[in-house]
Amino acid sequence: STPTPPSQILSGLVGSEMCIRDRGKTMDLGLTGKVAVVTGGSKGIGEAITRTLLAEGAHVANVNRSSTEGEALEAEYAAKGQRCKFIQGDLIQMDACELAVKTTLAEFGTIDILINNAGVNDGVSLTDGPKAFLSSLQNNLIHYYAMAHYALEALKKSQGAIINISSKVATTGQGGTSGYAASKGGINGMTREWALDLAADNIRVNTVVPAETWTPLYAELIDQSSDPAAARKQIEDIIPLGSRFTSSQEIADMVVFLASQRSLHTTGQIHYVDGGYTHLDRKYTSRSNNVDLSK
User: Fold this and answer.
1) pTM of the model
2) Are 215 and 222 in contact (CB under 8 A)?
3) Beta strands in 65-203 (DSSP E)
């Protein structure tokens, strides 16, 4: 059959579920029955990824430190006849990473997709010292390696996919967050290394990079300002495409597509889902710029 031209594919969102349609027909992402491990899959971007995978018919093992949200998600989808296994674990402990993989294999028998998402911008700066810096790497980088290491044999058997979640901070810097910046830069580097290392095993490895993405945590931070509406608008004004935050769902859509059978020849790529925030010329969004450089 003739492939559908990309220009004819329209994307629509219904609630938290992703639907990709072509003339009213759903694009099959080939994820039905696939098993995905998602770290930090209970809140924010991670929750959107978990829900989108489930909407596409995948089974999810959600590894998270906090139990409340994870158990609630498991119960919600169990009531629908879907499998969203919650695995409690603090991923700074290497034993917890190994146990998460073993528990997933005991529950589902296979791992097709690993999504490394857990992490936190902990604000560990150059002045905080080596001990704090190493702790930041544990929070944001080391468990990405550990999860891939422990899941490797299963991923080789399934010829699966790894998707890492990075941050624009690895490219732009932020100030005052050396540990997080180093971790996210390391994630981008490991993505390229693993893509080469695992190509012979038909394992695809890609990274998705959020920038200004609206999550409950971001909303909390904005609400702490003296004028939350003005603070939000100030950030939105420097985002070229649509002058708005990226949604968690838009990050999840890219992640799930990269995990899918519709993305079988994409590997080693760093995908920026950010409305042009990271790379496009700041003069475009600068109100103080009145110089015409088009001629």
Assistant:
1) 0.88
2) no
3) 84-88, 113-116, 161-165
Dihedrals phi, psi of 163, to nearest 5 degrees: -125, 120
Classify the C-alpha dihedral 6-56-67-118 as positive or negative. Answer: negative
Active-site position among 144, 150, 180, 277: 180
Contact 143, 99 (CB under 8 A): no
At 244-259, the pLDDT tens digits run 999 999 999 999 999 9
CA atoms of 147 and 98, how far apart (whole Å) = 7
**62: closest CA among 44, 214, 80?**
44
Q: Each residue of 175-230: pLDDT tens digit?
A: 999 999 999 999 999 999 999 999 999 999 999 999 999 888 888 889 999 999 99
DSSP 3-state of 164 = strand
Task: Verify whether residue 180 is a known catalytic residue.
Answer: yes
| Residue spans of beta strands (DSSP E) within 44-83 | 59-64
Q: Minimum mean pLDDT among 13-22, 57-66, 76-85, 198-207: which range?
A: 13-22
Residues 6 or more apart in contact with residue 178 via CB below 8 angstroms: 124, 125, 126, 128, 133, 136
Crossing angle between the packed helical segments 44-55 and 248-259, to the nearest 10 degrees: 50
Per-residue confidence at 160, pLDDT binned at 50, 70, 90? very high
Residue 291 has pLDDT above 70, yes or no: no
**Cα–chain center distance at 34:** 18
Can you give the C-alpha Rg of the chain in angstroms? 20
244: closest CA among 277, 198, 287?
A: 277
Long-range contacts, stretch 81-90, CB < 8 angstroms, 24+ apart = 82/54, 83/59, 83/107, 83/108, 84/50, 84/54, 84/59, 84/60, 85/59, 85/60, 85/61, 86/42, 86/62, 87/61, 87/62, 87/63, 88/64, 89/63, 89/64, 89/65, 90/65
What is the Cα–Cα distance from 160 to 116, expressed in whole angstroms?
Answer: 14
